Amino acid sequence: MGSPSYWREKVYRYRLIAKYCENCNKKYYPPKLACPICGNKELKEVQLPRIGTLITYTWVTQPTKDFATQAPYVVGLIKLDDGTLIVSQLTDVEIEELKDGIRVEAVFRRMFEEGDSGLIYYGTKFRPCLFSK
Amino acid sequence: MSNMEAEVYITGVGLTKIHEHWNKSLKHLAFEAIDQCLKEVNYKRPDVIVVSNALGSFLQNQNSLSGLIAENISLIDIPNLKVEVGELSGAAALNVAYNFIKSGMYKNVLLVGVEKTSDKLPIEYNTAIASFLDNEYFTYNGITPSALYAIVYKLYMKKFGVKQEHIAQFASHDHKMAMNVDHSQYKFPLPVEKILSSPILADPIRLFESYPVSDGAAAIMLSSKDQVENKDYAVKLDYVSLSTDKSLLYRDDFLYFKSLHSSFERLKLASKIENKDIDFIEIHDSYTIASPLILESMGYTERGKGYVLLIEGQHEKDGVLPMNTHGGLKARGHPIGATAIYQVIEATLQLREKARNQVPNPEIGLVHSMSNIADQSALILLKR
Amino acid sequence: MKTFYTVSIIGYGAYVPLRRIKAIEIARIWGKSEKVLPLEEKSVAALDEDTATMAVEAAYNAILRAKIQPNEIGAVFVGTESKIYTVKPTATVVAEALGITPTTLASDYEFACKAGTEATQTCIGLVGSGMIKAALAIGSDIARGRPGDELEYTAGAGAAALILARSGIYEDVAEIEGTYSFVTDTPDFWRREGQIYPMHYYRFTGEPAYFYHSREAALRLMNELGLKPSDFKYAVFHQPNSKFPQEVAKSLGFTAEQIKPGLLVPLIGNSYAASSLLGLTATLDIAKPGDRILITSFGSGAGSDAMSIIVKDGIESKRDLAPKTMDYITRRRYVDYALYAKHRSKYNK
């Protein structure tokens, strides 16, 4: 992937920052450059809620190269508490514990690295809420 | 699209078998398909060559593919270009070729789709097809196309209470159709029990519910009306339209392809036909769950009942809506960039009455193609 | 040591990974007798965790308790002996992930298991001198133990974070009364460049290293402040195993009751740079305003930082703003040696 592209997106990935259109009161994650509804190019950076509900999930058995050693891993469709939909990996969870509707929270995790000498890539995953919220 | 002057005809077709072509390269496969196609038109020289290929840059590290293919078959001195729109590349390339002739710019356009996916290891293939999704926010997080489809599959079963065996049956249907098709990748029957006991790809999608890894090339010669020599073989390309939908997460309903629906309505209006006028259909069933979603979005069945025509036997060659008569993506194969071209050729064979699973007296056939989960959709209407 | 301005801890946070492996499971593989196991179980970091990710969660909890905006923090120091890169500070990733960048100091500290308290000392100095408003000190480690070696039983994983600020500005959790650092060149444990696992000198790591430095730092601090063990409600010592902290506490005159809340090693192992800081967070989780706490870390190489703090009223309202240390400790899932090896695979090359 390389440093420049990783560095460009780090804030959005590290902290779950979305782009927000004030006119339409809509949040966009992955971040957009202009609002698809009104065309507004002055979108603001906004923090998404770090907690939500798991709508449904699956687990991946055929990963890409970056995740070759991590399969099977869980991918879930999550509705954050402000209504924003996001698809993300789930971690710290066994497949048997998963159920549609459980509460999940965002965590900062190591996604993958580029071999022995390349960069380490970080991002956000979700896990079942530690303590009932 | 269909209010311009020229009419467009398919005058020649050529295709290779679909399987792991260890001893044939991209150029080789393309050569074979093109040669067959040109033979049908007595080696008439096209005015331009349009190539469709989705993964060559990645798997073969090959760009400038159209130039390479043209040079290889000695079609120099004519323009060439490559079109890439993920899984929809073939339909998009067809759209370009169609409009070249519709606009009167060219009279004969050679269209060839080619893909070689068996050159690299499975993990590299997985990485290649993941490139169809947003690399920075989906692929980066390990979200694969099959994972997204799996989520839609689960939502569908939950919302409509449909059992997985009814959806998996679409793959059985494909295999049944492919059994006597020369160019299909798989020629064995696949019962539902076998599908449901195959390894999990991305829960609940089973391996045998997903398209295979395929190599293949398919070529079509498109010509304007005055260039048609063999009227019996020529099939009219009546209507081609592509549409783009919002990305999945921003749609109101994950289980309904709104842009496909509107696109189909426009087609019916422009061609003055109804659903029942279509004699057979080829759909892009990359995963079994895609089939009911496509059929429902096109209004062939009610929501949640996409499997009804299937279990009633209406998708057989003599049914109300013969579907995927050459095996669909699951059994005929899915050589990504070439797939839509194969679909159009299969529709052409039906209309020429030269198909193995021949639909009785077909007049109008419809080909559907799409990328990802209807991120882009294409509808291609052919008439005898 | 005292500062120009009084400094307080205004927020604290802990993080312990989910998985545990029992010592008897490790013993099963390597054939060690159950009778001589140094603890019950230790924490195991997952494949997608590392020093940075644990530090971020511990610090996030600290920020929640501190009730401070991340960009008010002017320094981030991560004490660790498992830096994510050998060159490029873990603290830069942590600071970015928390939204503390760009107006901040950032660097990684290395002093074996006392790197976290070294980071704390620097934070106290920066804040206490008036240079910055608030500072974040983190101890975070995924300890490495050579498979089959005695250190493998105790090499655990965890992170703890403290946010320091001038007293009286944000609600204070605990005021720093004074600190003392005691360091010598003592080769009890080290790791050469390019080596995956450290070397340690067995029994030499005891009296001349752990006990000597811990005792001296604690005694000299108490002397300077005119305090004796009975003036403290609680004491936290570095915990390489179950025995050492209990012995040094006893030798200094502290009771088993005093060290109980901070004695976590039997359940999570030695989290190295986080070890004594996690003992502190666990103690703060149950302490009351007015309680005096002694923290004495130890880092091989060798040295000890001793700190005396007095709990303030702020603890009552801030304690529950984030998960407590025991919340993380009681949340656990056991793995066998095979899964443990899979999750630690990045260190086994």
CATH architecture of the largest domain in chain A: Beta Barrel
| Proportion of strand residues of chain C | 15-25%
Q: How far from one another are the termini of chain C?
A: 43 Å
How many strand elements of chain A? 8
- Count of discrete domains of chain C: 2
Q: Which strand order does the major sheet of chain C show?
A: 5-4-6-7-1-8-13-12-11
Please identify which CATH superfamily of the largest domain in chain C we are dealing with. Answer: Thiolase/Chalcone synthase
Overall mean pLDDT of chain A stands at 94
Please identify the oligomeric state: heterotrimer
The number of helical elements of chain A comes to 1
| Main beta-sheet strand count, sense and barrel state of chain C | 9 strands, mixed
How would you classify the helix and strand content of chain C by structural class?
alpha/beta
Alpha carbon gyration radius of chain A: 16 Å
Low-confidence stretches of chain A: none
**Mean pLDDT level of chain C:** 94
Query: What general form of chain A does the structure show?
Result: globular
